[in-house]
Design goal:
By secondary structure, the chain is α/β, with parallel strands linked by helices. It contains nine helices and 14 strands.
Length: 274
């Protein structure tokens, strides 16, 4: 008896900042938006987000947010499909207090990030500079925010990447992922994008996994993927070395060319072509 063999689905996880969202332009560029919509049209492709942002900070991609079936948020600490939560791991309040006490003693600023909001212990010019990544939005000042809210990630604002690196040694249970010199994410080392994606794969079964990113927090998901794609604008050499492909710089808006090469998109004329 003849049985139809269905093709293995492809699941593609995209980072947000400087991968699909061009921070320099404060926009999803048109070629990237068209790529995502064309991928979504393919019934054998599933799209997902893998980002350090939380649900409250996805407004910058609101026009394309409905294209993504899965969301791996807070660098893997919170995973959902629509309204269904697949994984949820908060930071212990005692751990928040330990980090908060230290950064306060160093006259640094700490952001505490929850599912529906965030706050900082103090505001200064380093917070203003760091929050440009989130389009200039400044959190409210509330050093006790963590007492009444579940915290999934911490932000440190120091203006010095050496300080960020030192935090990793002082708090070994945390990973430190810099955005740039002004700000960095602190998340539990056991929670990263690759772990969040693994939880999605557990329910999807056999798929081909493609991951696209530009940051230090994308290295492990790029490594685990069947096809790892690093953005040309990434400043992390390890990411590019471990990727199977290096895409053009985000400012060139030619990410589509990589997916044409992989055979997931039929070549077209216009932006996105090599």
């Amino acid at each position: 008896m003849f049985c139809e063999v269905r093709p293995i689905k492809t699941v593609i996880f995209f980072d947000v900042d400087n991968t699909i969202y061009a921070n320099h332009a404060n926009a999803v560029l048109p070629g990237t938006a068209r790529l995502l919509r064309r991928l979504k049209e393919n019934p054998d492709v599933i799209l997902g987000l893998a980002t350090g942002r939380g649900p409250n900070n996805l407004g910058v991609i609101k026009d394309i947010l409905d294209l993504f079936e899965y969301q791996v948020l807070f660098n893997g600490a919170f995973v959902r499909k629509g309204d269904r939560v697949i994984h949820r791991k908060t930071i212990l309040k005692t751990d928040v207090e330990e980090v908060l006490d230290f950064v306060t003693s160093q006259n640094l600023s700490l952001g505490m990030v929850g599912e529906d909001g965030d706050a900082i212990n103090r505001n200064d010019h380093r917070v203003e500079e760091g929050m440009k990544v989130l389009r200039g939005r400044t959190p409210s000042v509330n050093p006790r925010f963590y007492r009444d809210h579940d915290i999934f990630a911490l932000w440190v604002f120091s203006g010095d990447e050496k300080t960020h690196a030192g935090l990793a040694g002082r708090f070994p249970s945390f990973s430190v992922f810099p955005w740039h010199k002004a700000g960095a994410d602190l998340t539990y080392r056991a929670n990263d994008k690759s772990e969040g994606i693994r939880r999605v794969l557990e329910e999807l079964g056999e798929v081909r996994l493609i991951c696209v990113g530009d940051g230090a927090n994308d290295i492990r998901m790029i490594t685990m993927a069947d096809v790892g794609i690093a953005m040309g604008n990434s400043r992390f050499s390890e990411l590019k070395e471990k990727a199977d492909h290096v895409a053009p710089h985000i400012a060139d808006d030619r990410l589509m060319s990589v997916f044409e090469h992989l055979g997931l998109i039929v070549p077209e004329d216009g932006p996105g072509r090599p």
